[in-house]
Structures are given as structure tokens and as C-alpha cells.
Amino acid sequence: MSILDFEIEEVRKLCENVVPSSKIIACTSGLLRVNIDQLNRPITVCIRFPETYPNQHILVELKSKTLSEKFLNRLVSLCEKKAQEHLGKTQCLHVLRFMQEYVQENPLCVCFDEIQALRKDMGSDASPDQLKLKQKLSTVLLNAKAGGYFYRVKALVPQEYPQKCVDLRQQETNLPAILSRYLNGQSREIARQCVEAPLRLPKGKTPRDFKPVPSLHKALKFCLEAICAFPKECCPVCGLLALPADPKDLETDDSKDAYVERVYCGHLFHQGCLKLYLREPPFPKDGKLCPAKQRHVRSDTTYDLQGNQSLNTSKNDECGMRLAHDRWVTNTKVAESRWAQKQARRRELEEVVDFLK
Q1: 58 plus 117 within the same structural domain
Q2: How many CA atoms lie within 13 A of 292 on its CB side?
Q3: CA distance 4 to 32
């Protein structure tokens, strides 16, 4: 019996016992095909034997619906290196067991491409501590920084990923509370919309047409872009930076003019500037519009089915969205009445001053 025939017989008898979660599909001298379903990440392994086998390593091909092609190519290289360690001997069971253990020990392999994309988004200047991987815990730690501001978040990748979205936990930041709440809430909403069909589907679409998409990169990229942009945003009224350069100078008293507010269109205002703008004429019938010269890329508009923003963010497009905020819900008539009363009081004071002169 040749070593190839011996190995084929060995694989038939031992494979499903030696390699957990494996199932033999085909086992001949021409082709060995095995399915390995580890952590709900099924991989189909096709092994062919070269003419000079076992003096030459086996040829491995991998297929998967959940793992990316880049990751599979990297895993093929590792498998072939493992096979080279056993030249002149049987190789299949060693390679199959190695592959099963590698996927088990690296659960983040399911989001390999997304992690690479995040590294690219962060740029070459990013320090290693800004993106950490915890393979045993299946978590990704993001520590986004911009100037003196930071935002930290732990993303837990579930076993059913990408059918289930990432779980964002332990958020920490030195941004104002209103921006912290926005980042926490919107990043979770982006992740959710990647895996759950909306209640109102586009015309002609059914829930069956919706397909979950990976959510790790979309959610963390949103956090990364936001923390980098917030310190650079200017108040549309006064034109000065909305946030102070030093986080220690942040105004925490929500009754002060320097307190930072975020409105539904996404722009940041100094509270004093926003109050002044809302209280001065003109008072349009449908309410005041945001005076910003262009629309904000992170407004409270809805996202589409795949977690992408649907807002038109052309640089030449003025904001023009109605100014709205939970703390200032004032209709046009009330605003005009308050303005008239204010002007009347000012005229009265001017008359008194003139009389005293």
C-alpha cells in the first residue's frame, strides 16, 4: 500500500474524530474535500495531491461564505507552511487540525477585512494602542484621539457575526455630555441597522430582500470620523471653534453662553449664539433655518438599509434645515411676540435715559 492510499484510509477513519466540527464530503486519491464548521464560520477545504507527494506539500484551496478572500489566502499560506513541516510523511490531518485550531483561536478572523480597513482609516501615524485586538475575548478596542479629545469603545464581535451586529460597550470620552450621548446612541443605531430590516421598506422591497451586512467597520468608522471632526467644527453664528482647544476649558453649566449645543441638523452652536439667533428677526413662518453654509455629514437623518448615510453632503449645498432642539420648541408667533416685547422695553429704557438727560 502506497503512502497516499494509507493516508486516504487514515483520513476516512480519523478525520471527524481528530478534527472537531469536521465532515468528510469526498475522500479519494484525486481530491479530499472536508467541511469544517468552527464557531459558525464554515470553511470548505479542498486538498489535492501533487505527483511527487509526499516529497512535495499538498495543494490547499479554501472556500467560505463568511470569511474574506484575503483572510483565506493568508490561511492557505499558513497551511502550506504547516504541510512543509511534514514532507515525506502524511500531511492532511496535520493541516486540517491546524486550520481548525487557528480559526478557533482567532475568532476575529470573521472581520479581518474590516479591521484592515479601520487601520487604513486611522492612518500610518496612529499608535498601536489606538486599535487593539483581544482574540480570546473576541473584542476590538478603539481609542480614537483628536487634539486633547478622545473616545474609547469596546466592540464585542458575537459568534453569529455578521448575522448579529457588534455589541458596543464601555464607552469613555472627555467630550461634552451631549456629544457623548450622540456618539454612543448613533454608533449603536448604525450597527443595528446593518442587521435589522427597517419597518418601512422601499417600494417593491420585502423583508426577504434585506441581507445583513458587517457592522464593525461602519460603527467604529463613524466614531473615528466624529471624534476627529468635532474639535474642528465652528459655531455657524460666531464662526469660532465650538469646542475649546483644551478639554479642561469645556463649559459644563448648561445655563452659560459658552455651553455647547448640538441641533438636529448636526451642527454645533454656542448656547449664547443659538439663543441670540433664534430670538432675533426675521421669523419665517415655518421656523428658522440653520445658517451654516453647508450641510452636516452627521445630521440626525436616517440611514439606509445598509447603514450608509442618505444625506446629500455636497460642499456647495447650504444647510437650510429647520433649526430644532428639545430645549427650544418655539413657534413663530411666540418668537415674534417675545421680540416685540424686548424691543418695546428697549425703547422705554431709551426714552427714560433721554428724559433724564
Answers
A1: no
A2: 27
A3: 11
CA torsion angle for 207, 212, 213, 218 (degrees, to 10)?
Answer: 90
Domain membership of residue 203 (yes or no) is no
User: Do 329 and 250 lie in a common domain?
Assistant: yes
Instruction: Give me the pLDDT at residue 40, please.
Output: 72
Mean pLDDT, the chain, rounded, equals: 81
Domain range enclosing 175: 106-198+210-228
Q: Quick count: other Cβ atoms within 10 Å of Cβ 222? A: 20
Residue 77 and residue 174 in one domain = no
Rounded (10°) CA dihedral 133, 40, 187, 181:
-80
- Cα-Cα end-to-end distance for the chain: 122
Task: Show the cell assigned to 313.
Answer: 453632503
The answer, yes or no, to whether residue 306 has pLDDT greater than 50, is: no
Domain CATH for 153: 3.10.110.10
Q: How far apart are CA 51 and CA 54, in angstroms?
A: 9
pTM: 0.76
pLDDT at 333: 55
Q: What percent of the chain has pLDDT over 70?
A: 83
Residues 97, 111 share a domain: no
> Which pLDDT belongs to residue 141?
93
On whether both 215 and 325 belong to a single domain, the answer is no
Tell me if 143 is assigned to some domain. yes
**Residue 93: pLDDT over 70:** yes
Q: Are residues 182 and 217 in the same domain?
A: yes
- Give the 3-state secondary structure of residue 122: helix
